[in-house]
Design brief:
The chain is an alpha+beta fold. It is built from three helices and eight strands. It has helices at 99-147, 152-191, 203-208; strands spanning 3-7, 29-33, 40-44, 53-56, 62-65, 67-70, 75-78, 86-89. It has a four-stranded antiparallel sheet, with no helix packed on it. The protein has a four-stranded antiparallel sheet with strand order 5-4-7-8, with no helix packed on it. A hairpin with a 6-residue loop joins strand 2 (29-33) and strand 3 (40-44). Helix 1 packs antiparallel against helix 2. It is elongated and about 90 Å long. The two termini are 32 Å apart.
Length: 217
């Protein structure tokens, strides 16, 4: 038989929902898990007239859903964004402790840090190359002049032509990688958060698998 959990302030979920969280209905959502634990589903018990169920995507943004299949590691928010809603990992209906969630956050943080380090190194490389490219263009033009005497104005024009293309490409790549780096940092700020209070976790918190503010662990 499937496992069925009604989530809300009066639900039968194995974790407490503070009665003061008024965006959360008494019976807000239903999570159904197949008897082999392979299939998970969530359903909004209030439909269009309720405060909504929201799932977090890979970018850390929440989108409203009504009935869909979910993963145990999906992050669910009951109610619109605000202090009177509640956010939790789907798996919490089977394990109310936060140990697994902190461990999962640590793995996400490591993955995002690797991406950040890679893009940061690429940005530095493009910055370095953008300095080298003009110098290289001038050197090439000077060598050509030594081999083939020419008017200085022509040499300057050749130098500009030799550097214009590479510089334009490097500026494009630098801007692209800088934007990606910014996106990764923004995603990390949305995802690496305390599973209890929602505050962004510090490096210390992630390493120690606990929130230094609400003391969750």
């Amino acid at each position: 038989m499937p496992y069925i959990f009604t989530i809300g302030r009066r639900g039968n979920q194995p974790f407490e929902i503070d009665p003061s969280l008024t965006y959360v209905h008494g019976e807000h959502a239903r999570i159904t898990i197949s008897d082999d634990y392979r299939q998970w589903f969530i359903e909004d018990l209030k439909g269009n007239g309720g405060n909504g169920i929201y799932l977090r995507n890979a970018n850390g943004d929440f989108a409203r859903v009504y009935s869909c299949r979910i993963q145990p590691t999906d992050i669910i928010r009951l109610g619109p964004e605000g202090a009177r809603s509640v956010t939790f990992m789907a798996r919490r209906v089977l394990d109310p402790s936060l140990h697994y969630e902190f461990s999962y956050i640590k793995s996400l943080d490591s993955q995002l840090r690797r991406e950040e380090d890679e893009h940061n190194a690429t940005v530095k490389k493009h910055t370095r190359n953008s300095i080298i490219a003009p110098v290289a263009g001038v050197v090439v033009a000077a060598l050509i002049r030594l081999a083939v005497p020419m008017d200085p104005a022509i040499m300057i024009a050749m130098s500009s032509m030799a550097t214009a293309g590479p510089l334009a490409f490097l500026r494009y790549r630098y801007k692209d990688d800088a934007e990606r780096l910014k996106e990764i940092r923004a995603r990390r700020a949305k995802i690496v958060v305390c599973p209890k209070c929602g505050r962004q976790l510090s490096d210390y918190d992630v390493r120690n698998s606990r929130c230094s503010v609400c003391k969750a662990m």
